[in-house]
Design brief:
about 425 residues; alpha/beta; Rossmann fold; six-stranded parallel beta sheet; 17 helices; binds nicotinamide-adenine-dinucleotide; UDP-Glc/GDP-Man_DH_C; UDP-Glc/GDP-Man; EC 1.1.1.22
């Protein structure tokens, strides 16, 4: 099969590389010529485990190529995947669809034979209708079927998720798209019953509902964690007991500094707006967003409190900047809001992230970026764990204790052993834990 992927970001590149890896012939197109040049040379411009070798392997095998010009790739394609960004539109929280619309118009100009246009980007319900109208208006002769196939991969585990999905949601309004979709996913489903065909609108809404539900779970356990702190309960025990109920499940019941990333914040906002636009207010989603916004500020306050109520002129050491481990993505990361709030209170920030330091330099100002977790701790009044990278599990706390001005740790992921740290002389504050008597 000839596949063209428009947009070579996290979703487009992972999809393109994985489809090439299972034998399809894939061209990934992107407007960003520097990105296309880097990718053509086998360099992936962001960190995603396993992706760079997979890209290099498939370029070498002749199944994967990159281009800034979509003319031939679209003309030759059996299927075109649109995987461009849909960030929050400035001002109103809706999804910005300009990139999707531009991609649709560009595809329309070059499409030749019957082609299935698959929207992988997360787009509000009804966008598939707009995409189809745009293509037909731009090129009335275009023989296309527009399909919604939202992507559920998680950054940091993207290849595994793409290769072993728990479901593949496909929204089609025309039966003739179905065999093309089956052929596309045939090597990935490998006989399993993973393809769920729905209407296009249902598929579009499923993606937002899934993300909003997961975000709601996170905000829920964060509120329960606060209640645990005020009542002497331990959120780790509560979450364990909750999650063992198969109707609830343990995932996303892990309290922390609030959700971030390129999806949950923007998708909850866009869904809430869709609710308002369609006379179906989504009060749970609205509350989820408000709880999460408050959460990040509350985490900064927690750090200030442990430092005696004042961080003016004090050095705070931050471990982890990416919105989660195994990625270098800082989009909407809690670290940003927390650091900004601490800086506003006068703190001096030093930070270390195993992958996120370079991208952070364009987002966070006046931060001392360090090369390892010990350098960051030198003369610090407090060490704050924001992102739970595995390597932080093997920190030498005796060494940290000696380096710090005052041995205080705020563990926003409950990663460390409180008893061990307290026995070493640290003041420790976790999330949702009972206060010591
Ligand atoms: P991204 O910003 O990493 O990549 C988008 C790419 O599209 C960029 O490289 C950009 O240059 C390119 N682009 C924009 N307009 C273009 C055009 N007209 N022609 C060619 N290229 C164009 O975005 P992403 O994180 O991969 O997300 C893409 C979509 O997938 C979004 O809708 C997002 O919500 C959704 N999604 C993302 C994830 C995730 O984990 N990142 C997971 C599931 C779904």
């Amino acid at each position: 099969m000839q596949i063209t992927v428009v947009g070579s970001g996290y979703v487009g590149l992972v999809s393109g590389a994985c489809f090439a890896d299972v034998g399809h012939s894939v061209t990934c197109v992107d407007l960003d010529e520097a990105k296309v040049a880097a990718l053509s040379a086998g360099h992936v411009p962001f960190y995603e485990p396993g992706l760079e070798p997979m890209v290099a392997k498939n370029i070498k095998a002749g199944r994967l190529s990159f281009s800034a010009d979509m003319t031939q790739p679209v003309a030759n394609a059996d299927a075109v995947l649109i995987a461009v960004g849909t960030p929050t539109r400035r001002g109103d929280g809706r999804a910005e669809l300009a990139y999707v619309h531009a991609a649709a118009r560009a595809v329309a100009k070059h499409v030749r034979n019957f082609t299935v246009v698959i929207t992988k980007s997360t787009v509000p319900v009804g966008t598939g209708d707009q995409v189809e109208d745009m293509i037909r208006q731009t090129n009335p002769a275009a023989d296309i079927a527009v399909v919604s196939n939202p992507e559920f991969l998680r950054q940091g585990n993207a290849i595994e998720d793409f290769r072993h999905p728990d479901r593949i949601i496909v929204g089609i309004n025309e039966a003739r798209a179905r065999p093309v979709i089956k052929q596309l996913y045939h090597p990935i489903i490998a006989g399993r019953n993973l393809l769920i065909f729905t209407s296009r609108r249902s598929a579009e809404l499923t993606k937002y509902a899934a993300n909003a539900f997961l975000a709601m779970k996170v905000s829920f356990i964060n509120e329960i964690a606060d209640l645990c702190e005020n009542t002497g309960a331990d959120v780790r025990d509560v979450a364990l007991g909750l999650g063992l109920d198969p109707r609830i499940g343990p995932k996303f019941l892990v309290p922390g500094p609030g959700y971030g990333g390129s999806c949950f914040p923007k998708d909850t906002m866009a869904l809430a707006q869709t609710g308002r636009d369609n006379a179906s207010p989504l009060k749970l989603v609205e509350s989820t967003i408000a709880v999460n916004e408050h959460r990040k500020q509350a985490m900064a306050q927690r750090i200030i409190e442990l430092c005696g109520g004042d961080v003016d002129g004090k050095k705070i050491a931050v471990l982890g900047l990416a919105f989660k481990p195994n990625t270098d993505d800082l989009r909407e990361a809690s670290s940003i809001a927390i650091i900004n709030a601490l800086q506003l209170a006068g703190a001096k920030i030093a930070a270390f992230d195993p992958q996120g330091t370079t991208p952070a330099t364009t987002i966070l100002r006046d931060v001392e970026y360090c090369d390892d977790p010990y350098a960051v701790a030198v003369d610090a009044e407090c060490l704050v764990l924001v992102t739970e990278w595995d390597i932080f599990g093997s920190l030498e706390f005796k060494r940290l204790h000696k380096l710090m001005a005052t041995p205080r740790i705020v563990d926003l992921r409950n990663m460390f052993d409180r008893a061990e740290l307290e026995s070493l002389g640290f003041q420790y504050r976790g999330i949702g834990l009972p206060q010591r008597a």
